[in-house]
């Protein structure tokens, strides 16, 4: 009898041990899209102001753009400028906001209502940063969850705090522009396919903020702005542009909350996440929850580039033609660089 | 060399590990004779009480009273059962060791029992009122059926309070533990109705109550932090604890100050006769206790200390952030007890605990807890025993960010003073009255921020905190209406004062509280009363004995709470704020109802119960989204006030005797909160009910224990509970280039269920001359990566939309080996 009991319990123990390995995780959260999203910004730079108008999709996808909107920029003097539809966005070319002046957008969305942003005053200009970079090895987790040491470009800024008693709110972000030359397949005419220029944000989830309200240091060294994995995009000249934006207090608070919800680590010290309220509202229905933020900021920037010879190792050629390589083996962006995300054939004037 | 046949338990640890399963089924429990077995019984002489020449009235009742004393320490023993004629007449000794039996004249067999003591049997002939003092000797009795219990074995049925649990360290010593640390808080979580947010979180949630709604008393003094190392280790050193109790159903009127439950921890007194030493060494901490007489029979000393050495574990971790991190803790206890006379005694105890934690060079914290308590207990006569206690407590914490020009630290501190006078009055066998008064003053220090280690670039700032004074009058009577019915009825009146100096603000009515809606400011000097709250707190419970082995118990009590834990994290952290009630932060009030059926079977071999409870709460502190809780002079603008409700049922089956002992508990519990306001900004989830952070409906615990010879034991724990709620991402959008997640309503979803299995094996008598043991424990034997939390991250830089991840505090089995000794 005792032997039998022992066997039964031993089998149960083994079964429990095996069951213990079979863990599966599913959030089972539901589809909850459909909310209006409006976001964009203006600055005193004479550049293209972009406004995005869309509607949220489920958690697995980014919002779906909404076409047919009438987007108008208005200032406190009654001036207006109308955005033009451009692909998934609305753009206002060569517009420069005036520091000290107040702006908001008005979005008429047929079938959805009329939306406006709470007016924001363009803050005063702030000091220029000193930007530097280092190339270092760091753990990198790929999409399969495999961790390996890879080389990164880490971009830092040394910020000189503007000597003012007024509160200052600053956000940094970085963008990159690099050249992508498609594969030059042999042809009887010797045509060389034109290169593309890829524009994209670097490390966009890293939200770097500063306010002088709690710190009185004259100089903030080594603020890490972004990290960029070194890959085939560094085979040619690779530009980085570091933007330093002076924000309103409200915009600063918005980004601070964005930092909390975008960078949770699941620890005991995590602040509980929640929906972030932006500065867009439905003119006819104040209770409607509208997502996004339209910010009026003042910007400075610093641009630098890296060449392949600046790297501590040699990169493997990505799109180079090889006679032993099948056409199908080339990545799609090598065959047609225009298929790469955020690519254009227009060469930036400073490139 | 002669060696006794049988198994040698002095095995090396790894052998013990491999052989655990084999051993538990192969070694029979040792069978020895009871101290007083049946064959001895006839030899026990008769004790004559009273004047045998008198001829008493057979119908009269005579009082037999006395004191039960620990022979080793001279200490009175509380909670010992004294029963005559197999519980036909019985009583339990009070805190001063006193008991009282009312018996008709005649001959009786009286049994006196207490856990960890050798039981005593008397045969008495009662002729008139008299005193029978009893001295029990300490000892672990190896009986045929060992019952390890800190309370009378039939108290499940006979105890008049429902939802009452009392345990002592002896009962939990053999349970598997994390890193070998015996933990009274974790062991309570194995009982029905008691849960926590998750692994490695401090505090307990009792019957749907919040962590701050559980009052933790150490020798009658409130303790603010009960855990080391973020909740992984209890702040209580096992070697100083006499017993601990949890009142989760009815709370007697002499206890109060929190809305849900009371956990009482009583420390031991030092030995009055001999010097003794005990301690232990485990993988993350070591402890040592010394006790003995400063003046024989008169004054005793007990000193204990525990210190961590856990950093070696962190250094083994490959992650550079973790290996650069530091965690350390220590606690110390000094207790001096002085006996003025047989009826008068005083204690002076000092307890301190300290934690330091630093995660790489990113952030860290440290906190200190000090508790100085003086207590004087007396027995004025056979019926009256007053107890006076005075406490000074101090709790401070500091959160710091050590690197960069923004390196700063934020500190908070709470000083509190408590005085309490309690009178135990026993007018007759049927009445046990406790009455008294207490007052506690909360005097927090200003919250302050300054540069870390003198960093001059950070702007120093202070935020004033509020002072409060809580006073109470109470009376409680446990009385027996008949043999079948007993009632515990009490009333507590509390009055709380929010006192100056303070600056208060009035806000525009109908508008969300914010700095911009302030309409008026008022300054109150010291000691002006800013606001006062108070009211009656009825406490009543009734026990109806349906049969000798079964009873029905019902209870209702109201409790008020004037101090709140401000913690906007999933689980409490050591750097949370304590905030007293103010004109803007009302007290929490809870009405607790419970009903239970209690049944003992097979001569108390089995103890079972089924209980149901309902709790409704008001004044719950909730938070706006993204609140600013630190250094906020207008904290009320970030807080919301809500109401709550909790209900559920508990099933409990415990085997007290036999080769295998242990229990199975199941709890079904729902906890919900509602924050509703006409103003949408001051509502949560549209003003609907939503689940509390710790709402885990199903909770099952199975505890198995097998005692073996030579003080060895095997234990196993199986623990299952539903996942707790969390707030999930339902969609996302892009602002700039940053993906901003859109979160669901608060606590709309739940994390995966939790299951854990632990085992431990205790080998006793490693060195024969010492009372020592080696405990091998395997925590999370199955190595399950139970989710502590669920959060979202992008799997790789090229992914725009974040994906759900679960964080497991322990993803692997955690073995530990601890050596304990006493000599």
CA-to-CA gap between the ends of chain B? 26 Å
Shape designation of chain B: globular
Rg over C-alpha atoms of chain B, rounded to the nearest angstrom: 28 Å
Characterize the main sheet of chain B: 22 strands, antiparallel, barrel
Residue windows where pLDDT falls under 50 for at least 5 positions of chain A: 1-24
Classify the secondary structure makeup of chain B into a structural class. mainly beta
Radius of gyration of chain A: 25 Å
Task: Walk me through the structure.
The complex is a heterodimer of chains A (351) and B (823). Chain A is mainly beta and 351 residues long. Chain A is built from three helices and 21 strands. In chain A, a hairpin with a 5-residue loop joins strand 11 and strand 12. Chain A is globular and about 65 Å long. The relative contact order of chain A is 0.17. Mean pLDDT of chain A is 84; it is low at 1-24. By secondary structure, chain B is mostly beta strands. The longest helix of chain B has 14 residues, at 13-26.
């Amino acid at each position: 009898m005792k032997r039998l009991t022992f066997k039964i319990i031993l089998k149960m123990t083994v079964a429990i041990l095996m069951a213990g390995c079979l863990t599966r995780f599913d959030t089972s959260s539901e589809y909850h899209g459909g909310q209006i999203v409006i976001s964009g910004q203006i600055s005193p730079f004479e550049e293209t102001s972009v406004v995005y108008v869309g509607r949220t999709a489920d958690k697995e996808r980014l919002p779906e753009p909404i076409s047919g909107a009438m987007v108008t920029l208005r200032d406190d003097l009654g001036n207006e400028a109308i955005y033009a539809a451009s692909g998934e966005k609305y753009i206002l070319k060569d517009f420069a906001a005036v520091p000290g002046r107040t702006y908001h957008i008005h979005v008429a969305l047929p079938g959805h209502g009329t939306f406006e942003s709470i007016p924001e005053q363009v803050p005063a200009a702030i000091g220029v940063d000193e930007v530097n970079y280092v190339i270092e090895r760091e753990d990198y987790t790929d999409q399969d969850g495999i961790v390996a040491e890879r080389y990164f470009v880490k971009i830092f800024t040394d910020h000189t705090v503007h000597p003012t008693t007024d509160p200052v709110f600053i956000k940094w972000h970085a963008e990159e522009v690099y050249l992508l030359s498609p594969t030059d397949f042999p042809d009887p005419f010797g045509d060389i396919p034109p290169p593309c220029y890829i524009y994209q944000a670097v490390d966009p989830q890293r939200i770097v903020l500063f306010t002088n309200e709690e710190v009185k240091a004259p100089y903030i060294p080594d603020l890490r702005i972004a990290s960029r994995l070194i890959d085939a995009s560094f085979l040619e000249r690779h530009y980085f542009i570091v933007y330093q934006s002076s924000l309103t207090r409200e915009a600063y608070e918005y980004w601070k909350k964005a930092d909390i919800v975008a960078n949770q680590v699941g620890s005991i010290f995590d602040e509980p996440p929640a929906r972030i309220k932006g500065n867009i509202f439905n003119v006819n229905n104040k209770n409607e929850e509208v997502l996004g933020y339209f910010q009026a900021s003042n910007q400075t920037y610093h641009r630098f580039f890296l060449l392949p010879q600046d790297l501590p190792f040699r990169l493997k050629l990505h799109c180079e033609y090889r006679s032993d390589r099948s056409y199908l083996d080339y990545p799609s962006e090598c065959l047609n660089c225009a298929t790469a995300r955020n690519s254009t054939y227009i060469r930036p004037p400073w490139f | 060399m002669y060696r006794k046949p049988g198994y040698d338990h002095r095995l090396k640890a790894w052998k013990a590990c491999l052989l655990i399963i084999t051993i538990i089924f192969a070694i029979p429990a040792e069978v020895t004779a009871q101290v007083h077995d049946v064959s001895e019984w006839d030899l026990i002489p008769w004790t004559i009480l009273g004047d045998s020449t008198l001829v008493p009235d057979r119908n009269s009742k005579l009082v037999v009273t006395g004191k039960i004393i620990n022979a080793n320490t001279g200490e009175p023993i509380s909670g010992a059962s004294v029963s005559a004629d197999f519980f036909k007449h019985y009583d339990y000794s009070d805190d001063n060791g006193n008991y009282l039996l009312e018996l008709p004249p005649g001959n009786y067999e009286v049994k006196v029992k207490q856990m960890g003591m050798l039981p005593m049997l008397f045969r008495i002939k009662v002729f008139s009122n008299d005193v029978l003092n009893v001295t029990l000797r300490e000892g672990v009795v190896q009986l045929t059926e060992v019952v390890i219990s800190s309370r009378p074995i039939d108290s499940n049925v006979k105890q008049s309070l429902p939802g009452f649990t009392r345990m002592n360290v002896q009962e939990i010593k053999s349970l598997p533990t994390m890193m070998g640390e015996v933990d009274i808080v974790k062991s309570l979580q194995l009982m029905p109705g008691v849960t926590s947010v998750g692994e490695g979180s401090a505090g307990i949630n009792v019957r749907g109550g919040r962590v701050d709604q559980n009052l933790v008393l150490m020798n009658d003094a409130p303790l603010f932090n009960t855990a080391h190392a973020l909740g992984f280790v209890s702040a209580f050193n096992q070697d100083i604890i006499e017993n601990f109790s949890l009142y989760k159903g009815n709370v007697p009127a002499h206890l109060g100050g929190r809305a849900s439950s009371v956990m009482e921890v009583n420390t031991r007194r030092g030995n009055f006769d001999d010097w003794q030493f005990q301690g232990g060494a485990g993988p993350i901490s070591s402890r040592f206790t010394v006790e003995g007489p400063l003046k024989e029979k008169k004054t005793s000393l007990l000193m204990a200390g525990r210190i961590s050495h856990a950093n070696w574990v962190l250094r083994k971790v490959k992650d550079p952030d973790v290996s650069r991190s530091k965690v350390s803790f220590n606690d110390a206890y000094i207790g001096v007890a002085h006996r003025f006379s047989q009826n008068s005694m005083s204690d002076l105890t000092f307890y301190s605990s300290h934690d330091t934690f630093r995660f790489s060079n990113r952030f860290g914290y440290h906190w200190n807890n000090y508790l100085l308590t003086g207590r004087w207990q007396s027995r004025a006569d056979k019926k009256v025993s007053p107890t006076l206690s005075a406490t000074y407590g101090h709790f401070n914490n500091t959160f710091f960010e050590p690197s960069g020009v923004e390196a700063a630290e934020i500190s908070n501190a709470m000083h509190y003073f408590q005085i309490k006078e309690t009178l135990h009055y026993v007018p007759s066998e049927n009445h046990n009255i406790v009455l008294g008064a207490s007052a506690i003053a909360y005097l927090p220090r200003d919250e302050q921020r300054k540069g870390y280690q003198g960093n001059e670039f950070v702007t120093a700032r202070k935020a004033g905190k509020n002072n409060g004074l809580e006073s109470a009058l109470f009376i409680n009577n446990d009385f027996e209406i008949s043999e079948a019915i007993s009632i515990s009825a009490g009333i507590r009146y509390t009055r709380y004062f929010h006192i100056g100096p303070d600056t208060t603000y009035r806000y525009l009515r109908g508008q969300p509280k914010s700095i911009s809606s302030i309409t008026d400011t008022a300054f109150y000097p010291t000691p002006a009363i800013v606001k006062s709250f108070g009211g009656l707190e009825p406490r009543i419970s009734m026990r109806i004995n349906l049969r000798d082995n079964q009873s029905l118990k019902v209870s209702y009590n109201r409790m008020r709470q004037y101090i709140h834990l401000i913690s906007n994290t999933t689980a409490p952290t050591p750097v949370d704020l304590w905030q007293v009630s103010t004109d803007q932060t009302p007290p929490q009030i809870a009405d607790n109802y419970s009903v239970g059926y209690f049944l003992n079977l097979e001569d108390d071999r089995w103890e079972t119960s089924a209980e149901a409870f309902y709790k409704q709460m008001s004044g719950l502190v909730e938070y706006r989204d993204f609140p600013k809780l630190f250094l906020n002079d207008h904290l009320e603008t970030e807080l919301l006030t809500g109401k709550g409700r909790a209900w559920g049922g508990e099933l409990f089956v415990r085997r007290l005797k036999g080769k295998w002992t242990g229990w199975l508990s199941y709890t079904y519990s729902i906890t919900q909160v509602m924050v509703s306001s006409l103003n949408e900004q001051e509502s949560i989830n549209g003003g609907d009910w939503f689940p509390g952070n710790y709402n885990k409906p199903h909770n099952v615990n199975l505890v198995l224990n097998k005692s073996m010879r030579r003080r060895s034991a095997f234990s196993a724990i199986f623990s299952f509970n539903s996942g707790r709620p969390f707030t999930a991402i339902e969609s996302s959008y892009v602002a700039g280039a940053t993906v901003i997640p859109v979160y669901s309503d608060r606590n709309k979803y739940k994390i995966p269920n939790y299951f854990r299995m632990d085992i431990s094996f205790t080998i006793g008598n490693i060195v024969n001359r010492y009372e020592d043991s080696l405990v091998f424990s395997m925590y999370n034997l199955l190595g399950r990566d139970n989710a502590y939390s669920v959060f979202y991250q992008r799997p790789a830089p090229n992914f725009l939309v974040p994906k759900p991840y679960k964080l497991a505090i322990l993803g692997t089995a955690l073995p530990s080996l601890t050596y304990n000794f006493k000599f």
